[in-house]
Design brief:
Elements: E1 2-7, E2 10-16, H1 17-26, E3 34-37, E4 44-45, H2 46-49, H3 53-60, H4 69-78, H5 82-98, H6 104-131, H7 140-168, H8 180-186, H9 188-207
Antiparallel strand pairs: 1-2, 1-3, 3-4
Helix pairs in contact: 1-3, 4-5, 4-9, 5-6, 6-7, 8-9
Length: about 210
């Protein structure tokens, strides 16, 4: 099914329903424009035929990463936390595609670099405690990198949280709510839990696109 769109004397199209929703989401078509469906002579307001511009937003923006949150948790445990660092970057890279204003990706990359720099010292600590390896004293540099990395990781979580709230309560209005305490405690894993729910919402919205 296709639709023609009229605004004053001008007529545009035909467009598939998905295209009309994209045009609604971008503001190129407004609900008060008139639409004529294929095979009919009647013109009706776009807002009557396409009552949920939200669907257009769901089509317009790429879906968040859709790895199940509990799979992310298992991978993080198995890899000793390395996967969590990588997945933070994956999530922030998606946000960078959605919004050029996003700065969370840069923060998470710096956190990852500091994490890598501390890996040798962290391994010696694990080796000493778990495998009776030689005792290695933590250096002031290592302590400093650890504190800076922790501070940046917390900052990155809350910057990313703000970016998610801005996007999912603005351009893509899915009424997202994110608890500050759970953000602090679980970070990317908490975000992934919500990404799974958001992707399910978007799937249901796509299923509601008119096809007659």
């Amino acid at each position: 099914m296709t639709y023609r769109i009229a605004r004053g004397p001008e007529v545009f199209g035909p467009y598939a329903a998905e295209e009309v929703y994209r045009l609604l989401a971008t503001g190129n078509v407004v609900p008060t424009d008139l639409a004529q469906s294929e095979g009919t002579q009647e013109w009706r307001p776009v807002g009557e035929l396409f009552p949920a511009p939200l669907i257009g937003a769901a089509l317009l923006f790429p879906d968040p990463p859709n790895l199940l949150w509990w799979v992310a948790l298992l991978l993080g445990i198995v890899t000793g936390g390395v996967f969590f660092v990588i997945w933070d970057i994956v999530e922030a890279a998606w946000m960078r595609k959605v919004s050029e204003r996003s700065v969370a990706l840069g923060l998470y990359v710096v956190v990852a670099i500091l994490y890598v720099l501390r890996l040798p010292e962290a391994w010696h600590i694990v080796d000493y405690n778990a495998f009776n390896g030689p005792l290695v004293m933590v250096t002031p540099l290592g302590q400093g990198l650890g504190l800076v990395g922790l501070a940046l990781a917390i900052a990155a979580r809350f910057v990313f949280r703000n970016e998610l709230l801005r996007h999912f309560n603005g351009p893509e209005p899915l009424a997202l709510r994110l608890n500050a305490f759970w953000t602090l405690l679980f970070g990317g894993l908490y975000f992934q839990f919500h990404f799974n729910r958001i992707n399910e919402q978007k799937r249901m919205l796509r299923m509601s696109i008119p096809n007659t």
